[in-house]
Amino acid sequence: MTTSGEPRRFLFLLGSARADGNTEYLARTAAAQLPAGAEQRWIRLADHPLPVFVDGRYGPETYPAVTEHSEALREATTWATDVVIAAPLYWYSLPAAVKLYLESWNSWFLDTTEGRRQRLTGKTLWGVTVFEGEHPDHIRPWEDALRFTAEYMWMRYAGTLVGLGDRVGDIERDTDGLAAAKTFFAG
Fold first, then answer.
1. Which residue from 15, 87, 105, 135 has the highest number of Cβ atoms inside 10 Å of its Cβ?
2. What one-character-per-residue DSSP string does the chain give?
3. pTM here?
């Protein structure tokens, strides 16, 4: 976690298969309220495809080779003080691109060379999502995945900003979600 006076650096990871969707709109609305001096990087995970994760801890397999995309994501993650997963609810959970990112993060986390593990811990993890809203309990697995990830990665989970919408543009009518976005990163 950052110390007082240290500049905050927010990494926004866009996990939707669609550009400019409701979740991205909500995340950008919240980001507009960040204090002056807070840095931002935005990465669309679909533009940085990662290989299928192979757990190489207990067998002859090794972790996937570092690719240009995985190295760019690792560097951005290491740079950040705050990581924001902005992803819609897909099949009651996180989209596949986000899961691949988290699985890659796990392999980076287990790499103890050059102090890499220490540079990946102590961050703050945030979630931003938009879903249709008919069944609020459906979002629980999405939130649990991030909360448990933060716990495993020795991070603080700061919570989830939730908006309501289905079709592109629906979020613009969610007055409660947009109001919550105005103060989300103050927490």
1. 87
2. -PPTTSPPEEEEEE--SSTT-HHHHHHHHHHTTSPTT-EEEEEEGGGS--PPP---SSSS--PPPP-HHHHHHHHHHHH-SEEEEE---BTTB--HHHHHHHHHHHHHHH--GGGHHHHHSS-EEEEEEEE--S-GGGGHHHHHHHHHHHHHTT-EEEEEEEEE-SSTTGGGG-HHHHHHHHHGGG-
3. 0.91
